[in-house]
Amino acid sequence: MSQVISLADIRRLAADFAQSGIVAAPLPTDSGKVFYQKVAAEEVQNIVLDGSLKCVNSIKEFLFPRHEVLYTFLRKGNDVELTDAPVFDTPQLILGCRPCESASLPILDPVFAWDFNDRFFQSRRAMTTVVSIACQKADSDCFCTDVGGSPENTSGADAILYPLDGDRFEVRLLTEKGKVLFAGKTTESSDVGHACEGPKATLDTAKITRWLNSHFNDPLWSELAHQCVGCGACTSVCPTCHCFDIVDEGSYQKGRRVKNWDYCQSALFTLHASGHNPRPDQGARQRQRITHKFAIYPEKFGAILCTGCGNCSRLCSAALGIKPALEKISSEAAEDLMPVPPLWVRNTQDK
Amino acid sequence: MQAQENIYQPSRMTVESVVQQTKDVKSVKIAFIDPEEQKKYKSAFRVGQFGLYSVFGVGESVFNICCSTSSDVVEFCFRRTGRVTDALWRVEPGDVIGFRGPYGNSYPMEKWEGKNLIFVGGGIAMPPIRCAILEALEHREKYGKITVVYGAKSVGELVFRDELDQWAQYPNVEVVKTVDPGGETPDWNGRVGFVPTVLGEAGISGANAVALVVGPPIMIKFSLPVLQKLGIPDEAIYTSLENRMKCGLGKCGRCNCGHIYVCKEGPVFTQAQIARMPEDF
């Protein structure tokens, strides 16, 4: 037997949740584009629950906001009073995201926890319930199956919806949080939902990682650089990009320290005060982005820092993004007859 | 278990003293206001580590902690270059600034015991060497001969130049100070020449030695062959890397050289380790 809920009941559930918590779900803007946005109780009618939908942005901004206050300060004579930012404690529901969005969350967990716990990400993560929707249609930018995902990947989700006919959904409850959310809201049924087949996997990520580890200096990077305008749009819609800047706002007397999204495609990202820049050109910055996702992060944290969502390619004004880059690397790697041993050996202090 | 601690919030520190070292370099001593935080710092700090220093309302920058582990205060040194250092330039004793740290790895001082130590530095790179020199001098009996080769463009640009002569007073310590040709003054009593050249002419023995080389890339590049010629293996040549950092905690994603996060796995590396790293610094 399956558990089924109607669209109207999901809207009611969202409206109830929004009374005392935050609901984030796909909402259309005036331009017709759909973004994951905060939804007020009276807006739940506008939520788009569509398994074929590809929102422009990512759900990451509800766990890792583009702008977040770390603490405030107030000068009192010579002294300075510091006030910690409040710990995030509002229940939050992310409703109707793609499985490739929810899958980013467990991938991001370790970087915010190695040695130092980033309370800002972790408290939001703990307070958030994620309900994804099984993918009904992959487009030409999708490649979840290449990076270990699938149209019904449940990783990071607390429940997953499968569209049925007649504005109904099958709900599969995955965690305790999911069970609590839907408790008493579903009815039993014999209807079972399905996901689409998903994009056909064509890439060998292990081979790509090996290639990256041995091609730090490769003409491909300048080839990509000539195409890339360095706008960083790809990083802002990427569910796994998590680099940030720390800056002060306010005056000398009174203000706050904030964490803002930053992006590796900017020359300023690594520019030293001396004027020296370790990544002086766009090729070096493209290399950093791809290598971080497919070689550095897997080695450090055991997961590819990419869910194959394709958000980057859909938004890129230069027809780049991760998938086209991986395809280029794959064809280069195919020509490498001899496997090259990795140049980068993980740093260990000499014992 | 969920963390409540805010890893981005600095400790409040009172500025104890400020010394102008050169026309654009100052060293500052800062003391913890909270004794608990000081205790935590003192039990954690090892020479070679770095901290993040805040002027509230302006921002935060990374510098080495240039004092030894016996120091109750935190000492750092900076060159006036950008927004934050411009604000730090104006701090006076009694002001309150922020400090986070100590972060990163450290010089393996225990491993260096019984060895001859060679310190090679240029210009503003004295602070990350000074902490190791002070540490070694405070435990003088544990180390063999100590040689310091330090140079700057001109006499006025030598950082901690008063201390150079004091260090030379210790037994079995040789301090070779030099300035680039044209940088000398009439009363200059040191050498004239570039650091790698002076290093080669200093008659240093490479036997049973470890070297710490910090300075501009060009100085490091030409000093390495000199040290290698002395017979010092790459595993015994250390340096301290600097890369732009924001968090110091392995999160913000910019200081990495390939797989290596300089803020967590560095800043101290041996030449052998650096040779295996991609040129991302």
Characterization of the model:
The complex is a heterodimer of chains A (351) and B (281). With 351 residues, chain A is α+β, with helices and mostly antiparallel strands. Chain A folds into 2 domains: 2-189, no CATH class; 205-335, no CATH class. Chain A has 11 helices and 12 strands. Chain A has helices at residues 7-20, 99-102, 104-108, 119-127, 176-182, 205-214, 219-227, 233-237, 282-301, 311-315, 322-335; strands at 2-6, 22-28, 34-39, 67-76, 79-84, 92-97, 128-133, 159-164, 168-173, 187-189, 244-250, 254-261. Chain A has an 8-stranded mixed beta sheet with strand order 3-2-6-7-8-9-1-10. In chain A, strands 5-4-12-11 form a 4-stranded antiparallel beta sheet, with no helix packed on it. Chain A is globular and about 65 Å long. Chain A starts with a strand and ends in a 16-residue tail after the last helix. The model of chain A is unreliable at 345-351 (pLDDT under 50). By secondary structure, chain B is α/β, with parallel strands linked by helices. Chain B folds into 2 domains: 11-103, Beta Barrel (Elongation Factor Tu (Ef-tu), domain 3), CATH 2.40.30; 109-240, Nucleotide-binding domain of ferredoxin-NADP reductase (FNR) module (Rossmann fold), CATH 3.40.50. Helix content of chain B is 26%, strand content 30%. Chain B contains 9 helices and 15 strands. Chain B has helices at residues 35-44, 83-89, 109-112, 126-138, 161-168, 195-201, 217-229, 262-265, 271-276; strands at 11-20, 25-32, 50-55, 59-64, 74-79, 96-103, 116-122, 146-152, 173-179, 191-192, 209-214, 237-240, 256-257, 260-261, 268-270. In chain B, the strands form 3 sheets. Chain B has a 7-stranded mixed beta sheet, with helices on both faces. In chain B, a hairpin with a 4-residue loop joins strand 1 (11-20) and strand 2 (25-32). The longest helix of chain B has 13 residues, at 126-138. Chain B is globular, with a radius of gyration of 18 Å. In chain B, 56% of the residues are buried.
